Predict the 3D structure of the following.
Amino acid sequence: MTTIRSALTEAVDRLCDTTPSARLDAEVLIAHELGRNRSYLRAWPEKTLTRDETLRIRTAVEKRASGMPIAYLTGKKEFWSREFTVSPSVLIPRPETEELVELALSLIPTGAPYRIADLGTGSGAIAVTIAAERSNSQLIASDLCPRALAVATANAARHNTINVSFFLSNWFDSIPAMTFDLIVSNPPYIAENDPYLDQGDVRAEPRTALTAGDDGLAALNTIARQAKRRLKPGGRLLLEHGYAQAGALNNLLSSFGYSNIAAHRDLQGHLRVTSAQIPEQ
């Protein structure tokens, strides 16, 4: 006979050598498999679990122990106080990316009919959040992966953001000819041989959404070059990047003729987002 208490003890014991958040992970997984919140576990520790519930919990715990991220096991992740569906086809939204959204929102006046592009949208967290916060804007979001685009489309429907449209596209390649007031992207920016790729949850995330050439700058280079032709005069480009890439990206954007280039820090104090502008004509 398995109770919630014994299932939790067993799960923590199994996870303690594989993750620093064993207790939290165990609670989240058990609550998810029971369709309850974590407070329910503390309120009913002696509740007897069915055989099916016990099996599902043990299966989820084993997957977590083997390196599967919690977000993929539960199928959800919070971003900007909203819950987003996620799958192994998309990156897990991270708090650092909220800096990109916050900066974008600061550049979009409330009520302004801005046209905005989100390149490599993944789960759609960036595009859907901006669309929800600035309902008079029109969002165009692209991704090269059909499975990722399906996740993003579902998230847009989930949050009733009818002002965002999705395109299966390699950056701008299949997006109709139009110009934008603002272009944002959290593209792949990790070098292909970076040891970080073999650590933690990153191991389970789609490699094509993480890596970009030997130095991690390939996608940033392509977007900066293409965006210059797609931004209106005075339009802005916002790019998330690695904590050590701000200087190289500044040089890259300068070489393309962007102005007002500035790097912005995330909550950890790292230079995480760079903004640039097309000169006014």
